[in-house]
Write a structure and sequence with these properties.
The protein has 204 residues and is of the alpha/beta class. 30% of the residues lie in helices and 25% in strands. The chain contains eight helices and eight strands; from the N terminus they run βαβααβαβαβαβαβαβ. It has an eight-stranded parallel sheet. Strand 3, helix 4 and strand 4 form a beta-alpha-beta unit. Helix 6 packs across helix 7. The longest helix has 11 residues.
Length: 204
């Protein structure tokens, strides 16, 4: 089994000194910046406080985030981030435009989807469409609202048997699926980091 990389997701604007970033253990290899929640922080400031690599995520309202629905603004922010971040999170249902793909090379793409619980066959279909575009990672996360919803993403992983795809269920019911996905070859495991003075949000 390949070693998975730990991803700390920044859900809140960091404190002025960034103590929560500097305190992250060395095992955390990636910091995911949820720009839809905290805006676009100074990247050099982040790099001085976090020793790993950076992921830029602009999660849309359609996928449970807070990014606006202006396509031009979205494209502009993603392209600007591509100048500074190691990995750009592209939503497979809205960001695979020729303009973005021309500017963001394969090794710096993460193609993702966050949505409601769906069956394994539907996840297979969605993944097959995304996989037509080369990327470093693919991430599919479905919201588990009842017991059993967390099985489909794990079944997808078992079926695919790929080292570049993470699939899990979100929400309290699906929490265990993040850990179970590691045994099925998931290359990434996500956790939250936030300012100690602020309440933590759950990760979508």
């Amino acid at each position: 089994m390949l070693k998975a990389s730990l991803v700390a997701t920044l859900l809140d604007e960091p404190s002025s000194r960034g103590e929560e970033l500097a305190a992250l253990p060395n095992a955390v290899e990636w910091l995911e910046v949820r720009a839809d929640l905290i805006g676009d922080p100074d990247v050099e400031w982040l790099r001085r406080r976090f020793r790993g690599r950076l992921i830029y995520t602009l999660q849309s309202q359609e996928e449970g985030g807070r990014a606006g629905d202006d396509p031009g603004d979205r494209t502009g922010r993603l392209l600007a981030a591509a100048n500074h971040y190691d990995l750009i999170n592209l939503e497979g249902d809205r960001d695979l435009s020729p303009e973005l793909l021309a500017r963001i090379p394969r090794e710096r793409r993460m193609i993702s989807w966050h949505g409601p619980a769906i069956g394994t066959e539907q996840l297979k279909t969605k993944f097959a469409r995304f996989a037509e575009v080369e990327a470093r990672y693919y991430v599919l996360a479905s919201a588990a609202s009842r017991s059993g919803d967390e099985i489909a993403p794990l079944s997808l992983l078992r079926f695919l048997s790929r080292a570049d795809t993470a699939a899990y269920a979100t929400g309290p019911i699906g929490l265990w699926s993040r850990l179970a996905s590691l045994g099925l070859g998931s290359p990434l495991v996500f956790g939250a980091v936030g300012s100690p003075q602020k309440s933590r949000r759950s990760i979508g």
